[in-house]
Amino acid sequence: MGSVPIFLVAFLAGAATVLAFAPLGLYPLALASFAILIHLWMAPSPRRCFGAGFWFGLGLYGAGASWSYVSMHQFGGMPAWLAAIATLFWCAFLALFPAAAGWLQARVPAREPLRAWLLIPASWTLLEWTLSWIFTGFPWMAAGYAAPGWSVEGYAPLFGVYGASFVTLAMAGLVWQLATRRGRLAPALALVVLLGAGEALRQVRWTEPSGAPFSATLLQGNIRQEVKFVPGHYERTLEVYARLAEESRARLIVLPETALPRFLDAVSPAYLARLEAAARRNDGDLVLGVPMRSGADAYTNSVVTLGSSPPQTYHKVHLVPFGELVPPGFGWIIRRLEIPLGDFARGAPDQAPLGVAGQRVAVNICYEDAFGEEIARAAANATLLVNVSNIAWFGDSLAPAQHLGIARLRALETGRMHLTATNTGITAAIDRDGRVLARLPQYAEGRLEITAQGYNGATPFLRWRDWPIIIFATGILGLFVVRARLTR
C-alpha cells in the first residue's frame, strides 16, 4: 500500500463499504473494499491481521452505525461529550469482530488464492454470525445486507444473509486475485459462475400465493420524537392516527410501534372503539403498536389487533440493549438517558402468528427485523410479514434506510411479502423478491395504500435457517486445519 499507513488504508476501506449498503446500494464497492482488506490480511502475522481487521471494522461501524449517538444525545439527553465517547466505545467493540476474523484466518495455514476466496470468507462469516447472538446480538452491518437489488440476493432464500455475506467475501477474494494477477482465467470464470448462479436463483419462486390479493394501508403519523411522550401532545397524536385510519378503506390497517404513547389500559375505551369501528367498517382488522403492562413494574412493547377478528396480541421478544433492556450492572446508563419505558419485559419466543384480514401475520417490532433466524421461526407458519417501528429515535441518519435494506433481506429469506409501518419513515411494502413496491417519504404524515398478497410454502432458509452456511464455514476452517497438520 506504499507509504500510506496500513491502519488508515483499512479504516478508509471499512468506511467506504458503507456506501454499498442502503440508501446508495453500490454493491460493487463492497467487493473492492473487502478485496483491500483481504490484501491486508495476506500478512503472515496474526497480530497485524487483527489490527487491520479492527481498523476496517472501526471504519465500517463508525461510518455505518454511529447513529446511536443521535439517540443518546439528541433524544436521550446525554451530554454530547459522553454520547461521543459511548459511541466510540460501542463502535470499537463491534470492530473487535472483524479483528477476530482477521486473527482467526491468519492462524490457519493456507495458500494465498484459497485463503482469499475460501478461508477468509469462512472466518468473516463465522464472526459475523457470532455478533448476531453474543450479548443479545447486533447483526446490523452484516455484509449480506448490501445484496438486495444485485445478483447475490439470489442466495438469500437458500442460505440467508450470512450466505450472502460468504458469497460477497468470496467474490472479493476473486477480485483480489484478479487485481494482484495471481491467476486470471480461473478467478474470472469463478466470478462469472457465482454471479450467474445468483441471477438464476433470483428467477426461482420458492413460495406460492395464498388466497386472493387484499387491500392494506400502512399509517405514518410523523410524530416527532421530541414530543411523542409529551403529555400535552397526546391528544393530537390520537387524532392523527384516528383520522388516518378512518380515511382508509383497506382490509388491513397497520399502525407503527408505540403509535399510542400510553399503556393500553390508560387509553380511552371510546378511542379504541373508534379505531375498531374503522376496521370493522372495512370488514377487516387494525394492527396497533402500544405498550402494555401486567403489573406496577412489568410492561411489554406490544401489538394488539382490533376489528372483525378476535382480539390478539404480540409482545416483543428481542429487546434493544440500553433502550428497552437494562443489562445487569448498567442501570447507571439508563439513569443518564431520558428514555421513557427503558426496561421492558420480554414476550414469549413461540408466539403464534396473528390471524387478521384472512392472513396469518408474523409480526415483529423494530429491531427484531435484524434477526433472520427468529423471523424465520415465526414466518414458517405465516403468510405475511409485518414490522412496526419507531426509528425516529435515530433522527435523519442512515438507520432508517439501513432498516429498510434489512427488511428486504427478510422478504427474500422467507419468500413472504413484508409490510413495514413506521412513525417517521421509512414506511414501505416489499414483495417476496425483495423489491420495494411502494414507500412513503420520510418525515411526512400519510397513508401507504397497497394491494398485498399472502404466500405459502417454504424457502430452503425457512427450513434450515442459518445452520447450513455456519456448518459449511466451520467445515472449511476444519479442513484447512486438518490439511495443515497432515502436511507438517
Key words describing this protein structure:
488 residues, alpha/beta, Nitrilase/N-carbamoyl-D-aminoacid amidohydrolase, 2 domains, six-stranded mixed sheet, 12 strands
Structural class estimated from helices and strands:
alpha/beta
Low-confidence stretches: none
**How many discrete domains?**
2
Percentage beta strand: 15-25%
Shape: globular
Q: From the coordinates shown, what is the CATH architecture of the largest domain?
A: 4-Layer Sandwich
Structure in words:
The protein folds into two domains: 6-204, no CATH class; 209-458, 4-Layer Sandwich (Nitrilase/N-carbamoyl-D-aminoacid amidohydrolase). The chain has 488 residues and is α/β, with parallel strands linked by helices. It has helices at residues 6-17, 27-40, 46-64, 68-75, 80-107, 112-131, 156-179, 185-202, 225-228, 234-247, 269-281, 331-336, 372-379, 399-414, 460-464, 467-486; strands at residues 208-220, 252-254, 285-293, 299-307, 313-315, 354-356, 359-365, 384-389, 418-422, 428-430, 436-439, 446-456. Strand 4 and strand 5 (313-315) form a beta hairpin. It contains 16 helices and twelve strands. Helix 2 (27-40) crosses helix 7 (156-179), helix 4 (68-75) runs antiparallel to helix 5 and helix 6 packs across helix 16 (467-486). The longest helix is centred in the first third of the chain and has 28 residues, at 80-107. 54% of the residues are buried. The two termini are 32 Å apart. Strands 5-4-3-2-1-12 form a six-stranded mixed β-sheet. The model has no long low-confidence stretch (mean pLDDT 91).
